[in-house]
Amino acid sequence: MTDAYERMMQANQANWDARTPVHLASRFYGVDEEPDPSRWFAPWEWDDLGELAGRDVLHLQCHLGTETIAFAQRGARAVGLDFSAASVEAATGIAARAGVDVTYVRANVYDAVEALGGRRFDVVYTGKGALCYLPDLDRWAGTVAELLRPGGHVYLAEFHPLLNALGPKPAPGEGPELLLRHDYLGGSGPVHRDATHTYTDGPAVEGATDSYEWMHGLDEVINALVGAGLSIRRLRESAELPWPRWPHMTRTASGWWQLPEPRIPLLYGLLACR
Q1: Hey, where are the domains in the chain?
Q2: CATH for the 3-170+179-197+207-273 domain, from 3.40.50.1370, 1.20.1090.10, 3.40.50.150, 3.10.580.10
Q3: Does the N terminus or the C terminus of the chain have fewer Cβ atoms within 10 A?
Q4: Count of CB atoms situated within 10 Å of the CB of 106
Q5: Res 247: pLDDT
Q6: Are 111 and 139 in contact (CB under 8 A)?
Q7: How does pLDDT run across 44-77, given as a tens digit for each residue?
């Protein structure tokens, strides 16, 4: 990885440290309420993941560990990894209050093999806003392959690149229609953001407001995993999100949200096996 990308990832780390107290105070995460980690999962994710009791499950880029707790509640030996020290500290406290046994490790995802002492897992889970913070998917996929036992699975539940390409709000003088404002495909370099507010409610971010994101098309994700020696077993595209990104989204029977029209993919699930 280039020195420039290293600096950008360090900026992202500082940004997520600064985001953590904002997210802890938000209604979006609701960490002070009775925890309901299952609300962050689509039903088809559990179908694809299968039985988790007694299995070693690693959640990469886990942030506050909201999904990680759900794995422990299903009987898995759950480990969460994140590069933000503030997030790891917060996640440890949230899991303790929920009464579940989860181990959290602070490390950059690219350093996960060393940080976890060579431990191998039955399932590596990641997604919902994770891959966009990684500049090198080939290196990521190679790391995931090293973390898996033979026969182990990686499961990626990630925001669809089409979602990331759509503008979240209209420019001045435009109507409410969603427009393609950003690249669908990767390769054009990082997108720099300097924002005092994140995707949640809550107070403004203080201090480190700079962040960098990289676009990754589905072909890039799939080819990275295949190049690391993994076999693709399933790909799903879903029109639903776990929160209403746009005001005109409507609630579905699952409790998630979708656009009234047209039906376009907003989330995808990808299962691959070593």
Answers
A1: 3-170+179-197+207-273
A2: 3.40.50.150
A3: N
A4: 17
A5: 81
A6: no
A7: 999 999 999 999 999 999 999 999 999 999 999 9
> What letter does residue 166 receive in the DSSP assignment?
B
**Tokens 């002492």 belong to residue:** 117
Whole-angstrom distance, CA of residue 69 vs CA of residue 217 = 29
CA-nearest of 113, 140, 161, 118 to 272 is 140
Task: Give the tokens for residue 133.
Answer: 């913070």
Backbone angles phi, psi at 273, to 5 degrees: -125, 140
Other Cβ atoms less than 10 A from the Cβ of 230: the count is: 22
* Tokens, residue 43: 């039903």
HSE-CB at 128 with a 13 A cutoff on CA atoms is 21
Q: Is the pLDDT of residue 168 over 80?
A: no
pTM above 0.85, yes or no: yes
E strands, 161-209, where? Answer: 191-194
